[in-house]
Write a structure and sequence with these properties.
Distance between the termini: 83 Å
Number of strands: 20
Helix content: 10-25%
CATH topology of the largest domain: Immunoglobulin-like
CATH architecture of the largest domain: Sandwich
Largest sheet: 8 strands, mixed
Mean pLDDT: 83
Strand order of the largest sheet: 18-17-12-15-16-11-19-20
Radius of gyration: 29 Å
CATH class of the largest domain: Mainly Beta
Structural class: mainly beta
Low-confidence stretches: 20-29
Order of helices and strands: HEEEEEEEEEEEEEEEEEEEE
């Protein structure tokens, strides 16, 4: 009987020691962690109901994904072990893009989706909020404060076409900008080009009797310096002309508005559109 009691006592003591060791290890784990406070400056973007928006922060250690944390746009905290990290913040609900290969810091990218059944046309993008913080130190001695100056990588360009002459014969216009970016690399924001690299937008008559519409893109390949304008007439015939943009600076490709003045006449029983002039409103959208 005494042996049984002694055996039970030894088991109880062993369990108590094991629990104490676990608590000690947990205390050591917590003591080795630091805190990052994350905030977002959204003064440059048009965001409403900020309290409902959450961002995804990808945290990399030695260029490999360490963890992903969902944070509030209004501000949040992240606890990490002491060390040095790279952080990338993105909007998971961005329109037109998906985030791929995020397990790797160098391979992660945002990819614009092609419109279904049309390999040459890309989905319009919007609300592509992006930030990056390189070599962020985390220490238990000091809280790290990060303020992300939030930007939307989407650029909105408005095209306006004013038509003289036989403007009533025009049903609509199609503006084609080639060389559209199909995404960007997450670690350095470098635009990715290639096929599909073309996006079209239709310009319809508005109340002021002008043909106007807007194009939402991430960027344009600098080697493409031509804008194609197609006129579609009421009898469904089409005529295409182009605008040479080779003489303008690359940053002016991202101007907020382009005004095109055209004339439509009839030559040998065919509608003939001519671009008389065009002007860029130089209120540029920075890359």
């Amino acid at each position: 009987m005494m042996r049984l009691k002694l055996f039970i006592l030894i088991i109880i003591i062993a369990n108590c020691c094991a629990c104490s060791m676990k608590q000690l290890d947990a205390g050591k784990s917590i003591s080795n962690q630091g805190i990052i406070k994350i905030g977002y400056d959204i003064s440059k973007v048009n965001i409403v109901k900020t309290e409902t928006i959450k961002m995804h922060v990808y945290i990399y250690k030695e260029k490999v994904l360490y963890r992903m944390k969902e944070v509030k746009l209004m501000g949040d905290t992240i606890m990490l072990r002491e060390g040095t990290y790279d952080l990338i913040s993105i909007n998971p609900r961005a329109e037109g893009v998906v985030y791929l290969q995020t397990e790797s810091f160098l391979l992660g990218n945002a990819s614009v989706q092609p419109i279904e059944n049309d390999e040459k046309t890309l989905v319009p993008t919007n609300n592509v909020y992006y930030n990056i913080q390189i070599n962020q130190s985390v220490s238990k001695q000091k809280i790290a404060d990060i303020i992300f100056n939030t930007e939307d990588l989407t650029k909105k360009i408005v095209y306006e076409i004013n038509i003289d002459g036989l403007k009533d014969a025009v049903k609509k216009c199609l503006v084609t900008q080639k060389g559209i970016s199909k995404g960007f690399k997450l670690h350095n924001k470098e635009m990715i080009y290639g096929n599909p690299n073309e996006y079209k937008t239709s310009l319809y008559v508005d109340n002021s009797n002008k043909y106007t519409s807007s194009l939402f893109i991430l960027g344009v390949n600098p080697i493409f310096k031509e804008l194609e304008v197609q006129f579609v007439f009421n009898d469904n015939t089409k005529q295409t002309t182009s605008i040479d943009l080779s003489n303008i600076d690359i940053e002016d490709l991202y101007s907020k508005k382009m005004i095109i003045n055209a004339n439509v006449s009839v030559v040998k029983n065919e509608f003939v559109p001519i671009i008389k002039s065009w002007i860029i409103v130089k209120d540029t959208i920075k890359i």
